[in-house]
């Protein structure tokens, strides 16, 4: 996928408000980067819109850095849940069905049109082109660069994974699950 090669994590799209977030990274597309993108969206856009939220719903593809088999993804989501005292509900698209992901239809076509024929000579150009996307239907994209480096290949032990407070749904619990907070203090 083109956006992964350019260090752009699949974006966060708030379907109800037409607001979206794209993190453009300088390093590896890892589970830590994926969750950091969600964290930045929550701080900048999500929490201001939903200050009383106690639950966050994430739809994700089945593979890649946020795949259902990626242990680090679940550990990092646990950190997010604890940090903001949120229950994080995750619903992965079954394998081969990411074409039904609303992000693919609502955002990427506009992002691609916006940078068509323009040389992507720097990260800042990429961020500016993505961040200037808006549509007549109200879609607004916000993009920021993430300067942090992320280590690839971090191994999560069975013991670390066992600390994740995960509740699997009855229907395909490998793809549909909740990660509950392990503390009650909210992030300031």
Commentary on this structure:
This protein has about 190 residues and is an alpha/beta fold. The protein has six helices and seven strands; from the N terminus they run αββαβαβααβαββ. The protein has a four-stranded mixed β-sheet. Strands 1-2-5 form a three-stranded mixed β-sheet, with helices on both faces. Helix 2 runs parallel beside helix 3 (about 70-85). The chain is globular, with a radius of gyration of 16 Å. Mean pLDDT is about 85; it is low at about 1-5.
SSE topology sketch:
Layout: H1 2-5, E1 12-14, E2 19-25, H2 31-49, E3 55-60, H3 71-84, E4 87-92, H4 102-115, H5 123-131, E5 140-146, H6 158-162, E6 166-168, E7 176-179
Parallel strand pairs: 2-5, 3-4
Antiparallel strand pairs: 1-2, 4-7, 6-7
Helix pairs in contact: 2-3
Question: What class, by secondary structure content?
Answer: alpha/beta
Tally the helices. 6
Counting copies of identical and different chains, the oligomeric state is: single chain
- Write down how many β-strands occur, each being a DSSP E stretch of 2 or more residues: 7
Order of helices and strands: HEEHEHEHHEHEE
**Beta fraction:** 15-25%
Radius of gyration: 16 Å
Distance between the termini: 36 Å
Q: Percent helix among the residues?
A: 25-40%
Low-confidence stretches: 1-7
